[in-house]
TrEMBL record:
Its cofactor is [4Fe-4S] cluster. This is Ferredoxin. The lineage of its organism: Bacteria, Bacillati, Actinomycetota, Actinomycetes, Kitasatosporales. InterPro entries: ET_Ferredoxin. It comes from the Bacteria. SUPFAM superfamilies: 4Fe-4S ferredoxins. Gene3D superfamilies: 3.30.70.20.
Length: 106
């Protein structure tokens, strides 16, 4: 468990998704957590699933596609959601789909 999880009481598995309709393509998310976010050729950010060491994975470009939030990257993913100018990054609990970080929690 990370310090962020202890502070926020978050212990459930989390997933993240990006609303591409709101994405401004600034790339802040990819700077904070390149293991989770990447800009595609269309200039928008997408999530990607965890990659085995030394391998690359395809971006999840389907609308509403989710990727798990690895615990070591939780604080980076949360920072991405908080700093995103498009307010398009949503982090939610897998168990019940409740948003825990992102524009719908403000």
């Amino acid at each position: 468990m990370t310090a962020q999880q202890e502070a926020d009481g978050t212990t459930d598995p989390l997933e993240v998704w990006i609303d591409q309709d709101l994405c401004t393509g600034d790339g802040i998310c990819a700077q904070y957590a390149p293991e989770v976010f990447e800009l595609d050729i269309d200039g928008l950010a997408y999530v990607k699933p965890p990659a085995p060491p030394g391998e690359e994975v395809d971006l999840l470009t389907e609308p509403g596609a989710t990727a798990p939030v690895p615990l070591p990257l939780l604080s980076d993913v949360v920072a991405s959601a908080r700093e995103c100018p498009g307010e398009c990054i949503h982090v939610r609990r897998v168990a019940d789909g409740a948003e825990v970080y992102g524009p719908d929690t403000a």
